[in-house]
Specification:
With 286 residues, the chain is α/β, with parallel strands linked by helices. The protein has two domains: 72 residues, Orthogonal Bundle (Arc Repressor Mutant, subunit A); 154 residues, Glucose-6-phosphate isomerase like protein, domain 1 (Rossmann fold, 3-Layer(aba) Sandwich). 53% of the residues lie in helices and 9% in strands. Helix 11 links the parallel strand 3 and strand 4. The longest helix has 19 residues. The protein is elongated. The relative contact order is 0.12.
Length: 286
Amino acid sequence: MLEEQESGLPRHIEIKIKAIYSSLKPAERKAADYFTKEPALIKELTISKLASSAGCSEATICRFAKKIGFETYSELKDEIVNSEGSQIVSVAKSYSKNDSVFDVLQRTFDMGGSSYSAIDMKQFEEAFNALKKAETVLCVGVGDAAIVASAIYNKLIRIGRRCYMASDTDTMNILCCSLLKKDDVVICISHSGKTKNVVNVATNARKKGVKVIALTNFPMSQLAKRADYSLFTASFAESVNGEVISKRIAELCIIESLFISLILSDKEYTRAMDVSNESVSYNKYD
């Protein structure tokens, strides 16, 4: 099991390993564990010596390197060497029964993760362009992911965009099938990427030519595989009950970035925002 500790690997490599770790085969996990525990040694090892030390085959090392985005082990090794001295990951520890209230507070904030490093900037730009072009946007999320979907909805309607939000299966599918057309956008939020009704909406949307923007933590997930554009977070810690609401902070940051980018791209959106702010000003104390 990949331990939640500072590994010494470059930030972007650590994030990639943690993002796909659950989908790796047992032999590939041995490679992942060795990379995480012994990054300093990897810089000096040939692929044969690394495979022997990790307890797997050379072919496994090659497959592992490809799964985290490198064509060869040599390319991965060079990246580690060339990134020496760059910022490394400090992975948040999960809660424990011995934590003080101050420990809990700090770890909750830390669990937001290192999501900026996980985002593919080309995917982000393409997702922004699709969102700007779309006539209609549907936002879907279940459980606490509905908080993020609702945040997107409330932001977009304030600048006059045609937008809908759904958090139950029937409404998701009805809105997807009845309102969306080619080149519209559905934004699907699922931290695990495994939520069936969210994945089904993405599948149905793709069949109609609707663009799917996925917000998820796992590149190998079913949702990511069905998305046109995947915006990944990097929040891996779990609470005592398996859920960490702070994982949504990274998703909200991505949404805020898309929204601000929209406003900056068109003066009409700025004017619409001013009108919206004025319309609710009566509800604010002076």
